[in-house]
Amino acid sequence: MGSAAELAAAVLMMLGFAGVMVAALVPSVPAFAAAAAVTYLADTYLHNQGSYLLNRLSKVRAGLSIRFLIRQLLLVLLLARLDLSEEPVFYAALACFIVFFGLQAPQGALTTLINNRREMPVATRNVDLASRIRIPDAPPRWLMNRSGEKMLHLDVAAVAGLLVWALTDADVAGFAGVGVTLVLGAAYVLALVPYLRGNRIPPNDAKVLAAASAWLREYRPETVLYFSGSKDSAYQVNMWLETMAQLETRPLILLRERVIIQNLAPTTVPVICVPGGVHLMNLDLSTVRVTLYPANVGKNIHMLRVPTMKHVFIGHGDSDKAASVNPFSKVYDEVWTAGRAGRDRYAIADVGVRDDDIVEVGRPQLAPIEPWKGVPEGPGGAGDGYCPTVLYAPTWEGWDDNPGNTSLLLAGENIVKQLVKADPPVRVLYKPHPFTGTRSRPAGAAHRRITALVEKAAAERAADPRFKADAAEQAKAKAEMARIEARLAQLSIVPDAKSDEAVATRDGLVDLRKHEEVARLRAQWNDAYWRSFPAWEHHVITGAEPRLYDCFNASEAMVSDISSVVSDFIASGKPYAVTDSAGIGVEEFRRQNTAVRAAVILSNSAAELGQLLDAVRDPAADTLADDRAELKRYLLGPDEPTSIDRFNTAVANLALKSEARNVGQESRAAAGEAALTTPVPTGPEAAETPETPETPVAVAGEGEGVAAG
Length: 709
What we know:
By secondary structure, this protein is of the alpha/beta class. The strands form two sheets. The protein has an eight-stranded mixed beta sheet. It has a six-stranded parallel beta sheet with strand order 11-10-9-12-13-14. Strand 13 (576-579), helix 24 (586-592) and strand 14 form a beta-alpha-beta unit. Residues 378-385 and 691-709 have low confidence and may be disordered.
């Protein structure tokens, strides 16, 4: 159902229809008008919110068209109960509703046909198709967006006019309302017709695919990131965009679902979305040598079938989950992991992935995380008011009620209470998972209580004379943030959500200078954000900005749960604690979760937090420092060469193997063709002709094997 407001609107709509029926039977024009208004408003609100209830109503034959038709029929019943069935306006009302219902068919057909004819076989970003084919502007958004709902609402004029007639006996009101509805309905249908003309629709599929292949032949992509998935999995491809932009080979992102390109983060890398398998096979990808796969999905087979390129599973994050050692990984030429831990994981799972097919490349996405520079200098809170910062970043409650999913429910308040009361003091940053409370009401309530604890502690600290704030500096930082936000709004590099897919393809060429300016401004905004409040102030951080890695860099330690957050934080080398919310015990918890082997393990009472705080304040008390360094190397590999350098090296090495294989195949094919075209001696000459050596074929095969090795 969604929010409480949606539930209330749904109940009101149901009660409104009941009220309309009762008012029609009584009969009462004012009551009918009031109940009808409630149904119109509630219906519109639920559509604006995209409520799931509307989908359920359609499943039980109470969809939008039926609801409008019922209201119209009940209006006819009201007029009949008022003994107005012999009046000319009554017959006009019947004719109006019949004709209006009939107009919905061509309106719906035209809208569907326009949408279908404007849907191209490929959608792109940063690919110049506009210079090769003509892509016309889309119809106005007001004409196409939620068109069925808009068409149906044109009956408001007729309903209002007829109610006024029933109340005042003014025939002109009834005829006027009926006339307005019919004229507007017919006008809506006629307004759609011009957008079916040839100059208003994109070229046919063959021409679009030919243009895409022509661009590919000109661009000559070498490394492809291939992805298929649902809207909710878009983050899996988004996490690799920056890495693709840093490749030393020509990159291309190949998507299979339109919903993914609609949710793709801004990037400078060319993107092609090809939903159709046949269309994908017809694209010219002959220059591609390496294809990278972030997920194991069925549509991968459409690319895996191409032998002229090497295929690599790169995943979307290393963890101890079963998905990280999927037996499907056997189909790839190589599997790339962050560090030795990934290699060992496959060996232990014994799912058929050979050790020599595994390459350790690190995690290029973690480059923005700054390494720890040791225990911060300063008196620890008194005097200049400096405090070490501890980030509390719990994960969400998950899809079930397993107590090990999140620390919020059983340990969250204990953790925050001890942190805000720590002596010497520390600063607390609370950054909850964005899904927190979406499934579990107790988790949402715990989040609100923790937020209140942090805000109360922040207010108390602000009143403490030991902690002083530079009001002028904070005001300056806030003004700078406002200026940057205004400029970022002007520089929006996200495709216009109001344009259709064809227009987004035509206009979706990145402005590199704008893209670079946005990146620079975001960095400046992040710097200003941390200056906009005192360095000792407790803070609740929600929303997309500042990002999680920015919070890592602003902290000296972290408390979290078993999730990718912990694995990523290890890259910083800073002290961290993980909560054993399920209470399985320290030894078993460490055995089951590689990422916590160098962590302070917290019980739900959070009594062990002192060990973490001691490590932040005193190097001698940091007993897990060596363990963290060793675990970081084990999970993520060495610091040098950098992860992106190792990644580029792995791409280059595999591209060489791919090229060697292709050359070997061409040599073998050429040798076979030569053998077929060489005349075979006959008669006495055949006895004198030495046996034809098979050296060319053997050499080609040996060359391929050496290169591949």
